[in-house]
Amino acid sequence: MSKHVIMGTAGHVDHGKTALIRMLTGIDCDTHKEEKERGITINLGFAHLELDDDFSIGIVDVPGHKDFVKTMVAGAYGIDFVLLVIAADSGIMPQTKEHFNILKMLGIRYGLVALNKCDLVDNETVELARLEITEFLEGSPLEHAPVVPVSSITGQGIDLLKEEIKKIAAAIPEKKLSSVFRMYIDRIFNIRGIGIVVTGSVLGGKINVGRELYLMPGNFDALKIKNIERHGQPVDSVMSGDRAAINLSGLKYEDFQRGMLLADKPLQEISMMDALIEFFPGIQRIEIWSQMIFHTGTFSSVARIHLLNKDELSGGDSAIAQIHLKKPAILLNNDRFILRNSSSDLTIGGGQIIDNHPLHHKRRTEKLRFSLEKLTNAITDHEDQAALILLEIEKANKPVTPLQIAETLGKQLHEIEKTIQVENFPAHHYFFENKLFLASETYVNHLKNKIILALKDWHEQNPLKETGPEAKELAGKIKLQQGFELFVLQKTLDEMLAAKELKKTGSTFSLKEHKVKLDRKMHEQITWLEETIQSANIQRTSINEIEASAKLNEIRRGQLIMYLQYLTANGKIYFNGEEAIHASVVNGIRNKLLNKLVETPRGINEKEFRMLVDGTKKAIQALIHIFTQEGIIEKQTFYLYITEKGREYLTNK
Question: Of the residues 4, 12, 14, 99, which is catalytic?
């Protein structure tokens, strides 16, 4: 049986936790001189219990004294089940209760009770103590935990305790392997001939010898793993549920500070998070803003707590809050923490992180409260992975890949892919360059709104155009990049066309309700402009000449261009940006030119064409361009010739 689990001790000072571990394992966890002198555990102690040839569990022994609760939290963080030690001659004491509250807040749901020092009391006292423990555990995750009478001095009940430990360890469900390896460093050594060795409880993921790790928070180079030990034995890898000792190359002793962790990839530092917090029963109430000490793993920091969905929080209640840390931390969603008062002499509660990269919530709106409560329900309901994924897509506010979601949630990629492959998974799917991207309905609606606003602006700027911009031009207007963002825009435009929210002319897009509207003044100005162009024939066709006359009619250059484009779109004139010629003039010249070319098989040159119609050089060039585009003539060197299409035109006329 291969199992990766860690057991932690808990209980009041002097109830015999360390002595009991020594009796179970043969390992003395009190290794410091001061611990020997004072007879109490001050630092974390570590051991391992060999249950059989194949089953070895890690053990973390924590201090029970009230002055070392911070150390107790560091040890309890990452354990899988607890050995709660209660002395038969003392019963349940203050630190028994405090430790137990901390364990519940850290999400520890498995454990057993060692009723220690039974050699010092009679059977009746043992039974009374057992009854007290049963009442104390009622309604908690350990309500049905076995209570084993033992003595760390005589060895009474030790074999039975080992059997119960083995049963519980075997019953703990296998952990889902997260995508990120993390381990808080609880001890660091510089061993002669070996180098720096760090120890800790692996919180998630898996790591192998030869891989690289990163020390965080901080900007440090990658560290190479030289060797790994698990329970004192060399191994190739360790994973979540292991106590590990890792020999690292590149780590300097002076770089390390308490609260740092190792991860197999750089993780973003945070100093603000949204969390579900809960106060222990009997704790005095706090109001919207308060200051506390935040503990998670070996990390601790002063924190300001801002309640978001309640105006106050009392003992036994919970609330959603934004936590502002004084020091940067490396924290992920679902991480649990403990809160102590600002003087750090009372543990008041704890909680669970629901969003490790939130916006700064300066205003407590009803919309914010609703979204945070929805997020809290998804985070705390471990079965609702689909809701978690959807909330992460929503929060990203852009299309994201399943891999990005897995990394953010600390999940395996295959778990995320399995969930989103469910039919009708409610997110927008985009396949681009062999990658799947997912976007929320909110993101797509926001993009649609930007499209509509951009088109409204376009139509206001171009009121006489039936058409709108092409997709690339529209992308520029709403500040989207080429490539993937343009791809998403085009998909969204297709959706809007299918829903008849837009209309398409050629390759351009416009609002479905858009129509060219002329007021009286515009109509008069356009009529004047068309008549002016028609009467000019091909003598005064340049835009500069037309502009001089347009000013007298209160037509600015921008309006003039717009009117010329409108007349062009409606087939009234031909306009190439420089020359404007009325369609009736072009039609007359077309006929005259084609008849001349039929009569002149050798063709005519540009000068002869100019003499034929008495036009300016630029006007003639504009006409040649029009007719060659129509395909009715062709130009060879300096001569113009009629084409078959031109002959058909004359025949059908």
Answer: 14
Q: Indicate the burial class of 360 (C-beta count within 10 angstroms; 0-12, 13-18, 19 or more).
A: exposed
Calpha distance 482→455 (Å, rounded): 19
- CB of 328 closer than 8 Å to CB of 270: yes
**Element holding 84 (H helix, E strand):** strand 81-87
Q: Is the bond preceding 217 in cis, omega lying within 30 degrees of 0?
A: yes
Residues contacting residue 627 through CB under 8 Å, at least 6 positions apart: 590, 593, 633
Q: What amino acid is encoded at 189 in this protein?
A: F
CB-side neighbour CA atoms (13 Å) of 417: 6
Q: Where are the beta strands (DSSP E) in 78-193?
A: 81-87, 111-116, 147-149, 182-184, 187-191
Q: How many CB atoms are closer than 10 A to CB 177?
A: 16
Phi-psi region of 483 (alpha: psi -120 to 50; beta: other; left: phi over 0): left
Range among 231-240, 301-310, 377-386 rated most confident: 301-310
Mark whether 18 is an active-site residue: yes
DSSP string, 308-371: SS-SEE-TT-EEEEEEEEEEEE---TT-EEEEEETTSS-EEEEEEEEESS-----S--HHHHHH
Helix (H/G/I), strand (E/B), else coil: 395: helix
Nearest to 535 by CA among 504, 580, 576: 580
User: What is the signed CA dihedral for 320, 322, 326, 331, rounded to 10 degrees?
Assistant: 70
Q: Which residues pair with 432 in a beta bridge?
A: 435
Burial of 122 (0-12, 13-18, 19+ CB in 10 A): exposed
Judged against a pLDDT cut of 70, whether residue 381 lies above it is answered with no
Dihedral (Cα; 497, 499, 503, 509), 10-degree rounding: -40
Q: Give the whole-angstrom CA distance, residue 393 versus residue 386.
A: 11
pLDDT at 584 (0 to 100): 92
Can you tell me the distance from the alpha carbon of 142 to that of 205, in angstroms, rounded to the nearest whole number? 27
Q: What is the pLDDT at residue 29?
A: 64
Rounded to two decimals, the pTM is 0.69
Query: What region does 368 belong to: left with phi over 0, alpha with psi -120 to 50, or beta?
Result: alpha
17 among known catalytic residues: yes
Kindly name the residue from 65, 66, 395, 625 that is annotated as catalytic: 65
In this structure, what token pair is assigned to residue 168? 């519980």
Strands (E), 205-346: 206-208, 212-216, 223-230, 233-235, 237-239, 243-249, 261-263, 270-279, 286-287, 289-296, 299-307, 312-313, 318-329, 336-341
* Catalytic entry in 4, 17, 306, 459: 17
Strand partners, 559: none
pLDDT of residue 128: 95
Active site residue 65: yes
Which one from 9, 12, 15, 18 is the annotated catalytic residue? 18
Pairwise CA distance, residues 420 & 238, whole Å: 30
Q: State the Cα–Cα distance between residues 95 and 82, nearest whole angstrom.
A: 15
Ranking 178-182, 195-199, 453-457 by mean pLDDT, the lowest is 178-182
SS3 label, residue 460: helix
Mean pLDDT of 600-606: 91
pLDDT at 35 over 60: no
**Known active-site residue 162:** no
Other CB atoms within 10 Å distance of the CB of residue 294:
26
Question: How far apart (Å, rounded) are the C-alpha atoms in residues 232 and 157?
Answer: 27
Residues comprising the chain, all counted: 653
Among 232, 368, 251, 346, residue whose Cα is nearest residue 295: 346
C-alpha dihedral, 429 to 434 to 435 to 436, nearest 10°: 20
Q: Any idea what the Cα angle at residue 332 is, between residues 316 and 300, rounded to 5°?
A: 65
- Would you state the structure tokens that stand for residue 608, as one six-digit string? 């002869």
Residue matched to tokens 């990203």: 396
